[in-house]
Specification:
Layout (H helix, E strand, L loop, with lengths): L6 H20 L2 H7 L22 E6 L2 E2 L3 E2 L6 H10 L4 E5 L2 H4 L3 H9 L5 E4 L5 H9 L4 E5 L5 H13 L3 E6 L5 H6 L4 E5 L12 H6 L7 E5 L5 H9 L4 E4 L1 H4 L4 H9 L6
Parallel strand pairs: 1-4, 1-10, 4-5, 5-6, 6-7, 7-8, 8-9, 9-10
Antiparallel strand pairs: 2-3
Helix pairs in contact: 2-6, 3-5, 3-12, 6-7, 10-12
The chain binds the ligand O=C(O)c1ccccc1NCC(=O)[C@H](O)[C@H](O)COP(=O)(O)O.
The ligand O=C(O)c1ccccc1NCC(=O)[C@H](O)[C@H](O)COP(=O)(O)O binds next to strand 10.
């Protein structure tokens, strides 16, 4: 395990280890492998993401009940109806938090959201074991998140390779420049740049465009965290990032379909 984690990440990972032990007792690897033949047809997660200023913004709309930085966001959230609103609002994909202890999520939330729409789904979790990658595929995810900061380079590559063998797309998350090499070495095609500093919880929406300019051509940058509305999307697009992950502002919205539409349509160049 990488020794570059903030204290919140350490806490989440420690708790996750206990949950993985429980899951392995409940659904051993052999069972997950058997389930693979019955998983739903994989949806193309990467197809909707882009870095084209002329297209509407590509937005992964997130489903999360609470977070360490903001506490309860929407305790009454219904994953299926929120997913439908996101689909109508023009989401490129769904991102569903499945971590239970800090975000109130579950694999059931992911499955309910996915079944309600035709959108591809990212399992948003803290993944650091091959078991979790297999579990994601068996439980119907189309894509997984791999966070560079919680992985050492060897494990990062191993998990990315396994995901690809299982037909899953990987969104690689980085925050610091020093994580770029590790991520590219793991074969990244989609790199999520987290605008939120997980040591302080401060967000800076200019971070993603700055870091995106350091990525090689052909790698798609996705701005993660802290996007509050169409103005933030327009600023980021002006600075060169056109794909986004938006959580809190949509989850708290009284009309997520309308708000998402406004974000999707924001900052398109004529
Ligand atoms: O959001 C947190 O407090 C947090 C703390 C520790 C690890 C991860 C955390 N967030 C996960 C995310 O990456 C966000 O859910 C995602 O980028 C969406 O961000 P936002 O639009 O600001 O809700």
């Amino acid at each position: 395990m990488a020794d570059k984690m903030t204290s919140i990440l350490k806490k989440i990972v420690e708790k996750r280890k206990l949950r993985i032990d429980e899951a392995q007792r409940e659904r051993p690897e052999a069972l997950l492998s058997a389930m693979l033949s019955q998983r739903p047809m994989i949806r193309n997660f990467g197809a909707g993401l882009h870095q084209n200023a002329q297209k509407p913004a590509a937005i992964m709309a997130e489903i999360k009940r609470r977070s360490p930085s903001k506490g309860e966001l929407n305790p009454d959230l219904n994953p299926a109806s929120l997913a439908k609103a996101y689909e109508k609002g023009g989401a490129a994909a769904l991102s569903v938090l499945t971590e239970p202890d800090f975000f109130g999520g579950s694999l059931e939330d992911m499955q309910a959201a996915r079944s309600a729409t035709l959108l591809p789904v990212l399992r948003k979790d803290f993944i650091f074991t091959p078991y979790q990658v297999l579990e994601s595929a068996a439980m119907g995810a189309d894509a997984i998140l791999l966070i560079a900061r919680i992985l050492d380079p060897k494990r990062h590559k191993e998990l990315a390779n396994l995901a690809s063998e299982l037909g899953l797309t990987v969104l690689h998350e980085i925050h610091g420049e020093e994580e770029i090499f590790q991520t590219l070495d793991a074969g990244a095609r989609f790199v999520g740049i987290n605008n939120r500093d997980l040591a302080t919880f401060e967000t800076d929406i200019r971070l993603a465009p700055r870091m995106a300019s350091l990525l090689p051509k052909g790698v798609i940058a996705v701005a993660l965290s802290g996007i509050r509305g169409p103005e933030d999307i327009a600023v980021s697009r002006h600075l060169g990032v056109h794909s986004f992950l938006v959580g809190e502002s949509l989850v708290r919205s009284p009309d997520p379909e309308k708000d998402l539409k406004a974000m999707v349509e924001s900052g398109v160049l004529p």
